[in-house]
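Chain A, query sequence.
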Amino acid sequence: MASNDLRTSAASGIGSLDAHPASDPQKPTVPTWQQSLQQAFRSLDALLECLQLTPDELPPLDRTNPFPLLVPHEFVRRMQPGDPHDPLLRQILPLESERSLPTGFVADPVNDAEFEVSPGLLHKYATRVLLIAAGMCAVNCRYCFRRHYPYQDSPKSNEAWEPALATIAHDTSIEEVLLSGGDPLALGNAKLTSLVRGIEAIGHVRRLRIHTRFPVMIPQRVDDALCELFEKSRLTTWMVLHINHANEVDQAVADAASKLRRCGVCVLNQSVLLRGINDRLEDQRELCSRLVDVGIQPYYLHQLDPVAGASHFECEQSLGESIVRELRSSLSGYAVPRFVKEIPGRANKTLLG
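Chain A, predicted structure.
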């Protein structure tokens, strides 16, 4: 199975579908997160029809891109119908410009392969490791730096994770485990709980960090069983969301973040500086203000990783530096993200500006 197939199969690594609970017939039925993932838009024509757009209103589209369209209805409902420049739409729309391969834009821009110490386990930085917990996401972001990652080679079962857990257990310098992917919340709660329990059993690990877009794309993923997992864990849990524009944060997302905080999770946000999406000072100021208003702390603003297929999103580094300087002069310190770039081989993210 090709790596991108793992990003689109709704049955890959997620829990079995739950039946809808009994509900008031006067209220609309909210689908489970698994149902939302299965019902997500995968057809470009269906998406454009929903948004009342025609292809001639948009840049040239790529209907045969091997990295396919995937976007849930919950996210699409936050887009403005009839607006070809909607900043949420532009994050997920496959364009012909993705076929361009300028110098320096490569399949593995952060050298993940070089730092794999066990199947699915990356060790780039001191005291922490990253585990590729799942091969799919709730959305296919067109600028994703792992859009070419060989997910088919990553562990997909409790038994397959054992070598990675053994590697972590053997290295007593490791204090923190990051779950990433793909998206670790694509795992069903039972499978995710099993993985977290395996990490908890390693005495020198103290912190768990989860990088996810699920609470943004499909907020009902933050269900009671997930919160119970975090409440009962001995690990200090941090969740890093990925929100690029203030329009992504509706009431359902704010409620999901509040629910996470109530069960003891520290909630942060990282975003990517993207041309035509959030590359104006007012965009970034509105995003940061919206985040802190709903209790999510801005953490990182990333300079785009030069992944093949995403060159049309790139902004000049000097633009990001200027924006962050202006944010410091108008927002409280806790509301200003650090502008960073990942340079392979460095001991940490490189602070810019």
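The two ends are 42 Å apart (CA to CA). Confidence is low (pLDDT under 50) at residues 1-6, 8-23.
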